[in-house]
Structure formats: C-alpha cells, structure tokens
Automatic annotation (TrEMBL):
Species for this entry: Eulacestoma nigropectus
GO biological process: glutathione metabolic process
GST N-terminal domain ranges (all copies): 3-83
The protein's name in its UniProt record: glutathione transferase
Stated family: Belongs to the GST superfamily. Alpha family.
Amino acid sequence: MSGKPRLTYLNGRGRMEPIRWLLAAAGVEFEEVYLETKEQYDKLIKDGFLLFEQVPLVEIDGMKMVQTRAILSYIAGKYNLYGKDLKERALIDMYVEGIADLMQMILMFPFSPPDAKEKNLDSIKERATNRYFPVFEKVLKQHGQDFLVGNKFSWADVQLMEAILAVEEKIPAVLSGFPKLQVFKTKMSNMPTIKKFLQPGSPRKPPPDAHYVETVLKVFKK
C-alpha cells in the first residue's frame, strides 16, 4: 500500500463522486480500482471486503470502509472539514443531507427510460430552483459569509459545489436567480484544491454516458 486512500468503484461518477470531490478538496491524492465485470464485484463480496455487499469501497487508515455517508463523515472529520463543534456539525449534516436528496435525482437520471427523461429533467429543475438552491441562497445572504457554516470551508461547501455543477450541466441557467450562489460558485472554483480538481486530467469523472450505464447494469446485475 502506498498510504494513499484506495477507492474501488466503477469508472464513473455514481456514489463515489462525492468522495472523490471531498478527498480532492482536502488536497488528498488517492488511487482508484475500477470494476468492469460482475466477477470482480462478486469476488469483493466473497473475500469479505464489502460489509453490506455494496460499493463504494474506500480503503483508508487500515479500514475497509463502505456506505457513502460513513466514508464522507470520516474524511470530513479527518481533514477538519466538519465544523468546530456539535452545533456546526449538525448544520453541516442537515445541508449535506438536503444536497444528497437533490443529487439522488441526478444520480438516477441516466437510468431513466427515454420517454421519462424530459419529465425527470423538469423535476430536477423544479426541485433545484424551488426547494434546494433557495435554502442555500438564504443561508449565505443571512449570515453574509463566504461559506455555509461558521465562515470556514467545510464538507457542506464541497457537496454544494458538486451539486451546482451537476445541475448546471443539465440546466445551464439554473443559477440565474441566485446571485449569492453565483458568487459562491466563483469563489469555490478558485480555491486551489478545487481548481485543480476541475482541470482536465483530474480524477473528476465526466457526466455518465451510455457506456457507463451499460457497465453499471452489467456489474450489478442480479
């Protein structure tokens, strides 16, 4: 082992992408192993690597961690991106859970049947502009600070930045009514670790395409 965290997932975004984002934002280099066959996945289960028979799998600090939320919490705590006290942590958790609800819609979008794509895209736009983004616009406006919690960069900021870019890929003008979020996006984009992650050739994955969808269905088929 090189000492770097080792990420096992498919060569695509999915549930691993927020983990890649958080490690990158913390300035941590990592290695990746890509699942391409059902046999690889079954072997991980057989060898006892996957506690609940699910990926993502992250090997870090001698642990084989599964469950996205647990992995993200650990990374956030380890790299001081999880607030200074319990109250700040609770706020971060609330914001992260809200963003995760929006991201779940985006995560499932590539698997929509063709005749449902337009309807699902409308749902993403409606939720982003009416339910989720207004919350963060209001938070930034009310406390007048650059970051969501405690005027310090945290896991919540990373997750929000990922969500903004993911929604913008589908609905380019989605931030038009959210001036504070526009400023937030610009500031986040210029943070050195995030700027590096947004460059071509970084471990950030492209939007899911037909090949990715096909691989997911093949690897995880029952």
